[in-house]
Write the structure tokens for this entry.
Amino acid sequence: MGAGITEVFAKAGFEVHAVDNNEAALDRGRSIIAKSTGRAVSRGRMTEEEQAALVGRITYFTDPAEAVAGCGLVVEAVFEDLDLKQEIFKKIDVAAPEDAILATNTSSLAITAIAAAVSKPERVVGVHFFNPAPVQTLVEVVRTVYTDDAIVEQLVKLLKELGKSPVVVNDRAGFIVNALLIPYIGSAINLYENGFATREEIDATMVEAAGYPMGPLALADMIGNDVCLAVLEKLYDETKNRVNAPAPILTRLVIANMQGRKTGKGFYTYVDGKPSEDRGPIRRPMQSRKAELPDRLVGEYLNNCVKMVEENYASVDAVNTGMAEGCRMPKPFEVLKEITPKRVLEIVEGIYAETGEPGHRPARLLRQLAAADDQAAAIDELQASTAELHASNPRG
Ligand code: 3HC
């Protein structure tokens, strides 16, 4: 993520100081940027001169204090370890200029806990980018109870200048996108482990039937199984919803350092960056239930989207933008309109009846939408009213 974020800022013309532990790690970052910009050149999206200028705007450091001196914005993107993040924030709090914005790209940790480690927590904010950062336009800007509104405004303006679509949210486990995407991936992993279908069937079905850009197990490998596990654990801690409890196979892959693409092995084994045809970590199912997958996974996911709006955390527009621009998935409330709330309610009631899990209970708002005479108009009304509410009362 660090390399991707560096590329995004350098592409927009900013001088960027990239920092990592040692020269080997910096070399890895350099080669990720070379590969990504090289691909843009080969596809005619960037000239060789632009690529050289972009690369020339990046200076590499191994000392964080030296790197942040004189910077207006610091974006930290180390792995998901609160102690480490707090330690880094204490260092940059002293070394960065007093008026610098201090941002973290955490996927799962409470921004508030990171902010609490510094002398001026009001200048700490979350900037959550999505994989691959040069491609996905969404950035979640996460404010805490400390954050100064002027800093949020400044950051939103800057991100728009970079061509990104910032969505401002409060600090809650998973924010918008991870709170919706990772439980969907977690459910797919559970179904895989419980013998619903093979990994190939699960991934192909969600691409073909649901129109998602990639299957959930391939996506877990791309995001990193360690990151998926960290997000699920934080969601589980905060919600105590057992549906968010990670599947045993996910925890085992993480223990075995099979984190996906970055370690060469996860749900798939990667040879030259491509998944190979090994047997996979779970034995083949006795009887495939792949035909049930789209209803089951999409139904549960749409119910969670509706719950998030019902809980007043995000507007319909923010959820739509989040999933479309963070993950290139179809806009959930448009899918809901197409399938109809009534049908989704039937599906979710079926899942709830089978599992008995309170986390699978249909949202009250889903029932209301399903009972409307004109269900599409009810979704439009919800979209308009939540847009107005969130714009007029952003602190919520
Ligand atoms: N770096 C830079 N650019 C890349 C790239 C990378 N790693 N991977 C792909 N691209 C670019 C390509 O150059 C191409 O650009 P172009 O269309 O302008 O030429 C474009 O992305 C599409 O790439 P491809 O044609 O090679 O491949 P696909 O069409 O299959 O797209 C994908 C690949 C962009 C990865 C797409 O499958 C996708 O969007 N998948 C979903 C990814 C997702 O959900 N991300 C969010 C994960 S959650 C997260 O990151 C948050 C964290 O906290 C967990």
